[in-house]
């Protein structure tokens, strides 16, 4: 009797993605692994994205389209994770990228050898390229000392390269969807704390950077983060707050670390505890210095 291969649900949140969505969808349909279902939630597009996706559906492609209002990418992906309830593995997918044909195959081959009762997250290497998929540089994230504190303050494993199992999905969905602004930040934090992350050094996708300033270096992302922090828009607060709410019955040392970031007003005590924390918050020294400075002045 033939054993059926595991079902992999590919989750795509689209927003005005008409320029590249066809190229991405084609790369998914060209996967060497064939038991794939695609879920697309549109986050309020005003261009022809919906028409493009509907064209695939009319041709009999396995795509479920969920039109929606604009709620942001994190909430959109979390909504998809909840909707796609029939499956074995879940893969997050950005609308602008291109997958290599063995991306899902490699993920399933690894995940099938692991203890399925444990939350698992598989992460493959990728190329960072310009909008023409040229001048690609390989991601280099391996062999880092991942800790709860680091995972709380920075996202190292990008969602578009991640595939998770059902235990990880269930753990992520303990959150209230409206409280999650970044699905990959939430996933990484939980995987480091309660599960396991496997890093595959093989390149499985190309991640498209859409402007010259973004593709030139990581300085753009750091500047955007700094600008947001100075305006009081900390990316750490939402994930820390939701972690403390969901896991309030497990108040270990990591819970209290997360709780340092949960405050509606400036607390000199919490600011000093964060700024003088004896271990590293971030992988980069320069980012570490900036973060601790922001902690002191109550911006993070």
TrEMBL record:
<dbReference type="Pfam" id="PF00535">
    <property type="entry name" value="Glycos_transf_2"/>
</dbReference>
<dbReference type="GO" id="GO:0016758">
    <property type="term" value="F:hexosyltransferase activity"/>
</dbReference>
<keyword id="KW-0808">Transferase</keyword>
<dbReference type="InterPro" id="IPR001173">
    <property type="entry name" value="Glyco_trans_2-like"/>
</dbReference>
<protein>
    <submittedName>
        <fullName>Glycosyltransferase involved in cell wall bisynthesis</fullName>
    </submittedName>
</protein>
<dbReference type="InterPro" id="IPR029044">
    <property type="entry name" value="Nucleotide-diphossugar_trans"/>
</dbReference>
<feature type="domain" description="Glycosyltransferase 2-like">
    <location>
        <begin position="10"/>
        <end position="116"/>
    </location>
</feature>
């Amino acid at each position: 009797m033939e054993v059926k291969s595991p079902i992999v649900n590919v989750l795509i949140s689209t927003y005005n993605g008409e320029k590249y969505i066809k190229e991405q969808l084609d790369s998914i349909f060209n996967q060497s692994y064939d038991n794939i279902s695609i879920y697309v939630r549109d986050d309020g597009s005003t261009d022809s994205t919906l028409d493009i996706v509907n064209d695939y559906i009319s041709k009999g492609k396995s795509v479920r389209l969920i039109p929606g209002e604009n709620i942001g990418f994190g909430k959109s992906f979390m909504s998809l994770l909840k909707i796609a309830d029939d499956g074995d593995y879940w893969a997050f997918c950005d609308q602008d990228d291109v997958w290599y044909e063995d991306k899902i195959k490699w993920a399933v081959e690894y995940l099938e050898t692991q203890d399925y009762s444990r939350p698992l997250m598989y992460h493959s290497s990728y190329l960072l390229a310009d909008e023409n998929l040229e001048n690609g540089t390989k991601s280099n994230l391996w062999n880092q000392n991942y800790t709860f504190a680091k995972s709380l303050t920075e996202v190292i494993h990008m969602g578009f390269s991640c595939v998770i199992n059902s235990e990880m999905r269930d753990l992520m969905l303990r959150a209230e969807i409206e409280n999650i602004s970044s699905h990959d930040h939430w996933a990484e934090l939980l995987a480091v704390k309660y599960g396991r992350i496997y890093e595959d050094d093989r390149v499985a996708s190309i991640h498209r950077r859409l402007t010259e300033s973004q593709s030139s270096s990581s300085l753009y992302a750091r500047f955007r983060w700094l600008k947001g922090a100075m305006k009081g828009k900390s990316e750490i607060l939402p994930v820390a707050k939701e972690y403390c709410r969901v896991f309030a019955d497990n108040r270990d040392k990591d819970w209290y670390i997360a709780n340092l970031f949960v405050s509606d007003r400036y607390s000199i005590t919490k600011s000093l505890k964060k700024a003088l924390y004896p271990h590293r918050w971030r992988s980069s020294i320069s980012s570490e210095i900036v973060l601790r400075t922001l902690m002191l002045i109550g911006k993070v």
